[in-house]
Amino acid sequence: MQLQKDTRNISMMMDFYEMTMANGYFNNGDEDKVAVFDVFFRKNPDGAGFSIFAGLEQVMEYLENFHFDPQDIEYFRERKLFSEEFLNYLKDYRFRGDIYAVPEGTIIYPNTPIVTVVAPLIDAQLIETALLLQINHQSLIATKTNRIVRAAAGKAVSDFGARRAHNVDAAVYGARAAYIGGAVSTATVLAGQMFGIPVSGTMAHSWVMFYDSEFEAFKKYALNYPDTTVLLVDTYDVLRSGVPNAIRVAHEVLEPMGKRLKGIRLDSGDLAYLSKEARKMLDAAGLEDCTIAASNSLDEFTLRSLNNQGARIDGFGVGERLITSASNPVFGAVYKISAVKEGEVYEPKIKVSETPDKITNPGLKKLYRVYNSDGMAIADYITLAEETPDFEGRVEYVDGVASWRRGVYKNCSFKELQIPVFKAGKCVCVRPSIEEIRDYVKRQLETEIWIEEQRFENPHPHYYNLSPALHELKMKMLSEY
After folding, report:
1. Which end of the chain is more exposed for a tag (fewer CB within 10 A), N or C?
2. Residue pLDDT, tens place only, 392-405
3. What is the number of structural domains in the chain?
4. Full-model pTM
5. What are phi and psi of 156, to 5 degrees?
6. Do residue 336 and residue 290 come from a single domain?
7. What CATH number does the domain containing 247 carry?
């Protein structure tokens, strides 16, 4: 058995059926037939009004490096399922297709194509799992983090989740997604090193417990880090020991050095009560500028409750419920074929199900965001790729959920959301920095997305509409089936 190492070939991150199908397509002579696949999701997590698209950077890295090493091919040979011709084909294999996607950080909604793959059938099939796992994981964590950040109401949120993440990659890429979603820093050093995310952290209870007294522990820490002293005050007793010893260190150790105590942290107990009492004690000691941070199994619901109780907390360290999205740990993006190219024409394909939500939108499509005259996003509009809507005139639509509801967009502007990411296997887009992606999320929520869609309970649904031509095609194909 080969152990996981840093040199692992991520191209092998696939479901086995992708290889059996690829082998079958090759043996049938269909490997170069072009197919269209859409990535979309059916439901916002946590009953939210929107989600945040994240993970595209890792998708691009994956596609650029897609290959099979000799040991990979030998592994497949040992399975005794694949033709030798197919295995030889894999030796020089590289991704050859086109990718269109909404920019990373885009606010996204259910049932709309966030990524479209137009590629030879084998290429499109082999990348399915890796594409979905990057998008599903990071979109989930970015969305969850943004809920927590909005619940914090302007107070800083830091990612403290690595030790409760599901593995190393989940911690590292979860920290990346959390920063995109609005966290100000991470405690995960590798994520800070890889992505340039600010890192933060002070001490654990073990530091305090190692020394003979809490005061000695605080003093030694302050002497090591006089400019950034934040003391964990709940190891023994917050109000009778922790805060008094922190105040003593501020006066006896830091002030003679010309320094100020930067903050204290609470990690257990009644955070609302303790923070209010600690604030009184700090202020009475002349430490009005000393901040109070809190951690301990926090999420958006506990943060809102703390704020509603008047807690005197200036920042939050959020761990397990952020990095695992504990309240709703599955994003649910799927990857479905929507067309196959026959000659110069894309023949539409549709998945039919007794579950209406699982019926797909057929064909090669375009996705537009519709804005009213005030610049607010009022709907997402999907058309067939060959359509050329008259955006200066009347633009008709059919509701994507309630098909009996039809209407006309008036005095609206339209923005095509998907951009070319890969063409013929080569990356063709400018890659934004993580700061630019983060700012893009913030800007959309402040200027384009209705506050009613940002509610935690019963958010207003974002309208999802089809062009009449797409709707007619979908109904025709359903009736035929």
Report:
1. N
2. 888 999 999 988 99
3. 2
4. 0.96
5. -65, 140
6. no
7. 3.20.20.70
